[in-house]
Amino acid sequence: MSASRLAVLIDLSGTLHIEDVCIPGAVAALQHLREIPNCRLKFVTNTTKESSSRLHERLQKLGFQIAPSEVFTSLSAAKCLIEREHLRPLLFLEDVALEDFKDIDQTNPNAVVVGLAPSRFQFDNLNKAFRLLLDGAKLIAIHKGRYYKRKDGLSLGPGPFVEALQFAADVKADVVGKPERNFFLSALESLDDGKIPASDAVMIGDDARDDALGSIHAGMHAILVKTGKYRPG
């Protein structure tokens, strides 16, 4: 790893906070990272349960001094794909996340987009998605996280529901968030002071597969923290 420039990609949920509770020591650790010369930070997240603006408000209330431009989300990556391919999505997202898609045409859907949407994962909604897929709609997984950490314990992520739709309709989803290689590289390229190579970047997160292995496969280094969804072994 080069000593001249360093990019640090940091996961949010489970690494810096759990819902509205800050991980102990996270604010101080972040401040320490900002004091390292030539160290650029980017906060990367698969969080899809709220819009980018609401996520930023949450982080500010928790005491994190993070600029909106420093956050790179899987929602942003999904919207870019929808716009690029001129898709009209059936969105599995909570209302607070739909704000990011208010300018997207959702009539007569030709795509099914799945994020974390506990209130939407009901039989009738999933069956509607299944029928669209049978008719040729594209399946997009904003991410395929198996589970995530809430204050009351581990909970199902969108991954199991994506797998169910893939199995039932015999299709394969396009995944845009972590652990996809392109997600990490796009986050790295979004830094505003020029390209830093993947070999000079490190990912910090609580998910061994989506954070650590995903970033390693993208050519980066990885640090797995024992917070959030981390489980021994």
Task: Describe this protein's structure.
The protein is an alpha/beta fold and 233 residues long. The chain folds into two domains: 6-46 and 178-224, Rossmann fold; 86-175, Rossmann fold, CATH 3.40.50. Helices cover 33% and strands 21% of the residues. The strands form four sheets. Strands 5-4-1-12-13 form a five-stranded parallel beta sheet. Strands 6-7-8-11 form a four-stranded parallel beta sheet, covered by helices on one side. A two-stranded antiparallel ribbon has the order 2-3. α8 (208-217) links the parallel β12 and β13. α5 (123-134) packs across α6 (159-169). It is globular and about 55 Å long. The two termini are 27 Å apart. Keywords: Magnesium, Metal-binding.
The geometry reads as globular
CATH class of the largest domain: Alpha Beta
**What is the number of independent domains?**
2
Alpha-beta classification: alpha/beta
Helix count, DSSP H or I runs of 4 or more residues: 8
| Topology pattern, helix = H, strand = E | EEEHEHEHEHEHEEEHEHEHE
* Name given to the CATH architecture of the largest domain: 3-Layer(aba) Sandwich
Overall number of strands: 13
Q: What kind of sheet is the major sheet? A: 5 strands, parallel
Helix content: 25-40%
Cα-atom Rg, whole angstroms?
18 Å
Give the distance, in angstroms, between the N- and C-terminal Cα atoms.
27 Å
CATH topology of the largest domain: Rossmann fold
CATH superfamily of the largest domain: HAD superfamily/HAD-like
Mean pLDDT across all amino acids = 93
Residue share in β-strands: 15-25%
- The low-confidence runs, each spanning 5 or more residues with pLDDT under 50, are none
Widest sheet, order of strands: 5-4-1-12-13
Oligomer: single chain
Organism: Anisakis simplex (Herring worm)
GO molecular function, one term: metal ion binding
Pfam families: Hydrolase_6, Hydrolase_like
Protein name: Haloacid dehalogenase-like hydrolase domain-containing protein 2
